[in-house]
Amino acid sequence: SAALKSIATTSHGGVNPSANLKSSFSFMTSDSNIYPLVSAKSHVFAENAAFCDRYILAQEGKLPHIVHIRYGGGCGGGGKSTGIWLLNILKKLQCEVFVTDSHYARQSGDERVYELYPRLAGSESTELLKQFRIVHSEGWSSHGDVSWSLVE
Questions:
Q1: Cα distance between residue 121 and residue 72, in whole Å
Q2: Is 56 helix (H, G, I), strand (E, B) or coil?
Q3: Cβ atoms 9, 15 nearer than 8 A
């Protein structure tokens, strides 16, 4: 779509900081006014921490559901980050449901996220999560159980 033409990606899949996402994405409220929507006509492959810090948090975006499963693998991820920083911003994003495989052992990539994006740093606490469902790993990938939690 024409709106996405201004988005350029770097060779490592990150979002080009010069890309004007404010004109490409708009955060709006749905008719039910329960959750905001990110409107776009396509998918964007971006480095998660950079995209979250520079665009979603910067525009005070809201993500009611976040899925954190097999973070850091595939698409060039190399498994150097667990995405533990997500625990620090669930409330900022007004996340209501967090789906996770609970692989949170901090790695070198997680340390680098905090160096580059201090706004994503925090206590890495799971105390806000109230689990309401578990999908056992043998039922889908043997990677680890996946839990669904309300963020309180």
A1: 18
A2: helix
A3: yes
CB 61 within 8 A of CB 55: yes
How does pLDDT run across 102-124, given as a tens digit for each residue? Answer: 888 888 888 888 999 999 999 99
Q: DSSP letter at 15?
A: B
- Least Cα distance to 51 among 61, 41, 42, 40 occurs for 61
- Asked whether 129 and 146 are in contact (CB, 8 A), the reply is no
What does the block give as tokens for 72? Answer: 């850091």
Angle at 65 between CA 59 and CA 70, to 5 degrees: 105
Reported as a single tens digit per residue, the pLDDT across 124-151 is 999 999 999 998 887 666 678 999 999 9
Where residue 74 falls (left for φ over 0; alpha for ψ -120 to 50; beta otherwise) is: left
